[in-house]
UniProtKB/TrEMBL annotation, chain A:
It comes from the Bacteria. Pfam families: BPD_transp_2 (PF02653). The keyword Amino-acid biosynthesis does not apply. GO terms for molecular function: transmembrane transporter activity. The chain crosses the membrane at residues 20-43, 59-78, 90-113, 125-145, 152-171, 203-221, 251-272, 284-313, 333-353. It is a multi-pass membrane protein. The lineage of its organism: Bacteria, Pseudomonadati, Pseudomonadota, Alphaproteobacteria, Hyphomicrobiales. It comes from Rhizobium straminoryzae. One of its GO terms (cellular component) is plasma membrane. PANTHER family: ABC TRANSPORTER, PERMEASE PROTEIN, GUANOSINE ABC TRANSPORTER PERMEASE PROTEIN NUPP. InterPro entries: ABC_transp_permease. Keywords: Cell membrane, Membrane, Transmembrane, Transmembrane helix. This is ABC transporter permease. It is found in: Cell membrane.
UniProtKB/TrEMBL annotation, chain B:
The chain crosses the membrane at residues 6-26, 33-54, 60-82, 89-107, 140-163, 184-205, 211-231, 238-258, 264-282. InterPro entries: ABC_transp_permease (IPR001851). GO terms for molecular function: transmembrane transporter activity. This is ABC transporter permease. It is a multi-pass membrane protein. One of its GO terms (cellular component) is plasma membrane. It comes from Rhizobium straminoryzae. PANTHER family: ABC TRANSPORTER PERMEASE PROTEIN, SUGAR ABC TRANSPORTER INTEGRAL MEMBRANE PROTEIN-RELATED. Pfam families: BPD_transp_2. The lineage of its organism: Bacteria, Pseudomonadati, Pseudomonadota, Alphaproteobacteria, Hyphomicrobiales. The keyword Transport does not apply.
From TrEMBL, chain C:
PROSITE patterns: ABC_TRANSPORTER_1 (PS00211), ABC_TRANSPORTER_2 (PS50893). The lineage of its organism: Bacteria, Pseudomonadati, Pseudomonadota, Alphaproteobacteria, Hyphomicrobiales. InterPro entries: AAA+_ATPase, ABC_carbohydrate_import_ATPase, ABC_transporter-like_ATP-bd, ABC_transporter-like_CS, P-loop_NTPase. Residues 6-235, 252-499 form the ABC transporter domain. It comes from the Bacteria. Belongs to the ABC transporter superfamily. The keyword Cell cycle does not apply. This is ABC transporter ATP-binding protein. Keywords: ATP-binding, Nucleotide-binding.
Amino acid sequence: MSMRLALPHLVRRERASLAVTLLAPLVALSGATLVNLLLYVAIGKQPGAVFHAMLLEPFLSWASFSEVLLKLGPLLLIAQGLAIGFRAKVFNIGAEGQFILGAIFASAIPVWYPQATGGWIWPSMLLAGAMGGALWAAITAFWRVRLNANEILVSLMLSLVAAQVLNYLLLGPWKDPNGFNFPQSVMFQYDAMLPLLFEGTRVNVSLLIAFLLSGLAFVFMQRSFPGYRLEVGGLAPRAAAYAGFSEARAIWLSLLIGGFAAGLAGAAEVAGPLGQLQRSISTGYGYSAIIVAYLGGLHPLGIVLSALVMAALSIGGDNAMVSADLPIAAVRVFQGSLLIAYLIAMAFVRYRLEWPSASTRSRA
Amino acid sequence: MNAIEFILAGMLAAATPFLLAALGELVAERAGVLNLGVEGLMALGAALAFIVVYHGGGHLLAFVVGGLGAALLALIFAFVTLGLQANQVAAGLAIGIFGQGLSALFGKTYESLTVKGLPKLALPGLADLPVVGGLFVQDIVVWLSLLATLLIWAGFAFSKAGLVLRAVGENPKAAHSIGYPVMLIRLAAVLFGGVMAGFAGAYASTVYTPLWADGMIAGRGWIAIALVVFGTWLTGRIFLGACLFGAVSLAGLAAQAGGVELPSQLLASLPYLVTILVLGIISSNRRLLKLNGVASLGEPYKP
Amino acid sequence: MTAPLLSLRNLTKSYGPVRANRGISLEVGERSIHAILGENGAGKSTLMKLIYGVETPDEGEMLWKGAPLRLSSPASARKRGIGMVFQHFSLFETLTVIENIALVVPGQRRALLSRIRALGEEFGLEVDPLAHVHALSVGERQRVEIIRCLMTDPKLLILDEPTSVLPPQAVEKLFDTLRRLRDGGVSILFISHKLEEIRAICDRATILRSGEVTGHVDPRDHDAHDLARMMIGRDMPEPLPVTAAPAGEKRLELIGLEDTPDDPFAVALSSVNLTLRAGEILGIAGVSGNGQAELAAFISGESRLPAARREQVQMMGQPVGHLGPAERRRLGFAFVPEDRLGRGAVPELSLTRNSLLTAHPLGLQRHGLIDRARAAAFTADCIRDFDVRTPSAEAEAGALSGGNLQKFIVGREIMLKPKLLFVAQPTWGVDIGAATDIRRKLMALRNEGMAILVISEELEELFDLCDQIQVLRKGTLSAPLNARDTKPEEIGRYMMGAEAAREALSA
């Protein structure tokens, strides 16, 4: 009998069971955790200490959990916006740039009117930020619809440009004259700051807005007809064309929603925990949100959970840097491997492995 | 030395990271696989190669390690997208983030350290020409990259392997039905792309600017992907595109040397702005993209 | 007695729960043209994939000249002398003919060129070896496929539905080629569901039904009626009744429609004229690849004309050339496209959500929100009225068989109560029972005054259904021919080209 390589093959499941679908992200999380702990051992860190600092500590005290909630806001906002586009197969991966533009637009108000007072200031800042993000995304939409250019590349390039625009402002016209030459704007006045949600923490109303918009995203994607049109465009573009759902409209809508949400998040960041425009306004929220969106299965409810996990991971990473001497880059490694693990787990939701049957092999 | 001479002399070296990565991506895309993780592959290759050179391993070993490291990451990408038929866009982004994270992790203790690059080799006679002479004084990697460009061009134009690769990219079902192992061919193409991206990163961190800094790839992997579109999947045009980007990334320095006052942020954005602009111009010619494009690009193939 | 060229013993192949082939046994002799007869979904294609090594059987064995035959890939099948011509060709459009052939046949370019030309002359398979495949007609592509097979010196040639893409006259030419091949020592496996063709050329026939063999016969000893009974398990359905009806007002008019597409692989349309009235069925015949897809897109609105030329397409008396599909539907237009999965329906969505695709104006959505109860009710009606066999309305469209999905889509479009219904390839890949249902439904709607446009590759279908037939060739439409007093051969001449057609008219 000759030796033949008996490779298993994937057989599509007739229907993906709900239990397996829900289980997959958990399996992915466990798998990624295990692999990363092994990696920490390899670079000579204490895996137990890292595990504790990274995955448990964020939940062990109100102080650190409130920091998780603080991170949750922007991740949730951006990821909900991106997921709508991803379901329509409009891959806006430039949320980072839209976030930065949101921060810049929002900052314009306190930078230009540092003496202004009144309750209108922070809401206008949020609105301006959302507009800024949407405008930045509109460039990508225009390039895609009118010029047929790939939105992945254009939106990413615009993110890199946005970082330079921010640098320019902070080193030039918007630099705080009394800031000892640091690349940052003036500190914002009190009325330019978002109201806090819980006293003694830094959590502000933007978290509430993020949850509100998550609810809207749920209605939009799961119940509304415009959401259905986007979904059809993503699943079967030719069916959308057949039904007369405009592709250009889907691209504009997807990108504007994504840019709006990311811009809002950027505005909330400067008007929230930072209180000024600075170089490090984003710690890669725009990229992390891509992972959040996928990890949440592109479903508005799933995204709430995955955003919480990623926020905790990010706070945990900071903890581990202090307590277990873990390089901060480890968080990025964890995030990347988490998405890879999720994609692997999802393959087994859609397919099951089938080994060549015994009868075939005995005859071969 | 005037600005033109300066740009001509440095252009090829500046173009090499773009060129190597774009050639690798070209081969992968021709086989129908869109790998958006090039940025991460380059970063990992750059970090590994830098570490090898820093510890005295030499450039040859550095390129081998950088290439293999990136290929290993590309193997994960291939497993997820080819083996498990996952979405290529998501998998590419994941690999990109993962690779950048790994590079930062491995390079942590080497931040801002420098190593010695490679000597330049002059082509006798040509190097002494006025104005263009600088073009013919390059390091060995640049010369080898030019050779690789030539080989890949010839491979697509004349060889059976090139023909098979194009066939697999256009219509994997038909290629399977006439007996080609589509999966294996795509795997090989993705791994080749990984090795080339690793080389590109190694060149960036150990030869072109021989220092390590987190984030030093700075979007060059993404521009390499864009270059494949600019070149409408043709080797010669991709080479020209890489030279353009090499020149653009030197234009800032040349302008400053020439006394032109421009905000440095604008100069830093120049490659990205040029990418956006050229992408718009090329892509609006739908007929050209359709004629030269890869029909099955990015679509999972189920045997 | 010598062993037959190929014997199959008890071959079985399942895909998941679907048993595509069950215990198939048959023998193909030397110098034989052997038919595999069966309707859509009977398991013919699966069987061919097993014989050509694309798939491996779950059970059973194959013998080649009496010795066990195990195929791990098409390459190993070719090495043994088995070649195959696919129904949907396995050619690469962006490559040239010679490049396509070089992918399968080893050898120097020059040697290949001279062999291609020699084979072309010997078997009547002329084709330009340096042309790009996307520039070739469907008939020429078939010739390339056959040449490619012949260059590997096969002993057995498998042809999957080879005549479905050819006009009647070209079928004669193909048969002539096949006879010459047989006389030259090549056996042929001829897959078809067309009874008359099999009687004309085959000396043996194996009949398949639902994945099983229901008979081995000499087709020349049986009439079409017998063969049909073996194929579908009962008598062929009766031809449809025709009632003459006075034609009503114009519902669709194309006036000198022309377009040069951006897409280099698409067919240009030039001076296309047609008029379709209420109570009439107009058929568009022609070999696919002559502009059917492009014409259909201009009628459906998936392709639009610039506003200046909007008069070239008129619906219900209004110029609509510049309007999109949704706006045309609002005027009373409905459309069943030729591809069901991915165009007429979204495979990953349930039938209920697929109802929304075009039926949303019937109150399935209000104020931007989906009315799930109404969508479910609509879907239930469609499933009941059009006999869609599905486990439930929540089943994914992709899980339905071709025939049932087609019934669903046709049903959905008919329930929109359109004034103008456009159906492309109404019965492609649909079993005979479902096809008959669909045709009867279309006839009934015509009698009630609906205007119906049908594009089909099947001439018999058009003759069954239509009042008028126009032939599409190279992007141009012929004048209308009255279906009742036109012979298939005449239509065939139009399919071949204007030259032949003009001669026919003057004769």
